[in-house]
Amino acid sequence: MAKFSIIIPVYNVEKYLSDCMNSLINQTYGDIEIICVNDGSEDNSLGILESFAQNDGRIKIINQENKGVSAARNTGLENATGEYVLFVDSDDWLEINACEKINSVIAPDIDIVFCNGNTRNANGSVVVLQENNPVLDKKNNFFEYIEECFKSLNLRSVWGKAYSREYLKKNNIKFLEDLWFGEDTYFLMCNMCKNPQIYVMEDCLYNYRIYAQNSLSKVDCVKRYQQQLLLLQRLEDLFNQNPNSLLEFCAINDTFRILTYFCKNIPFTNYKKTYLASMKSVYEKLKSYNISTAEFRKNVRVYKRNTFLIKTNIFELYWKIIRPTVKHLIVLPYRKIKRLVRGNKQ
Question: The pTM is what?
Answer without folding.
Answer: 0.84
